[in-house]
Amino acid sequence: MNALNILKVLKSYGIITFGVFLYCFSWCAFIIPKGISGGGVTGVASLIYYATDFPISYTYFIVNVVVIILGTIILGKGFGAKTIYGILCASVMLKILPEIEWVTTLSDIDDNFLNALIGGTISAFGIAAIFQQGGSTGGTDIIALIVAKYREISPGKVFMYCDLIIIGSIYILPDRTLADVIYGYVQMVSFSYMVDVLLVGEKQSVQILIFTKKYEEMANMISKDLNRGVTALNSIGWYSQKESKVLVVIARKQQLPEISSAIMELDNQAFISVCSAMSVYGNGFEPVKYSKKNKKIIGNGKN
User: Is 283 among the domain residues?
Assistant: First the structure.
């Protein structure tokens, strides 16, 4: 392994370490001290801690020993190594951070709704950083990546489905109310939403419908200057009874401002309709995922 590859590996593990820190910090500073439940193995460990005072770090490690085996088999040795590192790192941080006074007393916010929102958001940044390096902190993270390998479904949705049951379980603990369950769901929703934004937000696509009298010039401009494909559909203005063309453009969401600006510059009377495209497959977008056994397309999630 040359020096460049070593630097890449060190950088990858450095980012994973930082991501694990953000994840554990969010729990130790905003979630656990407020008695809020959450999802994943950390959520399970926190429930056991609330009920028995058994250390969260120990439960987290024990449960992940089981799921790491499954993740290594399905997702490969490289992923397994990074996940083992992530789990060990998280286990240590979940042990050390609660013993640091400024961490556990950082949040002086009395409103548990805000604590759940902040905790979920910060933990999502940590998990996104880890995922982008091919790592994981175990638990439902592994389940999310396994599902994503075979199906076109966003990681946030996988987290949400798994965590609904985990968070709802806090209601069976003594002296817990429905409000505690709601705070847990606030944490879950903010976490899931931010994971989707950070991991798949840049892949989101839009469908643009352009109504303009200058459709020929507009189509040429979009095709040649913006290097985007354009489809012209026959149309009739029902009020005027005049035939025209409606231009259809599929583009990435981040390209929308550039395209909209160019359209209005050519024809400031143009009418534009924009809607989100849940799935776009093909050249320039996402490849179609299918099962080799039955050759059926199995992608049905977000871009």
Answer: no
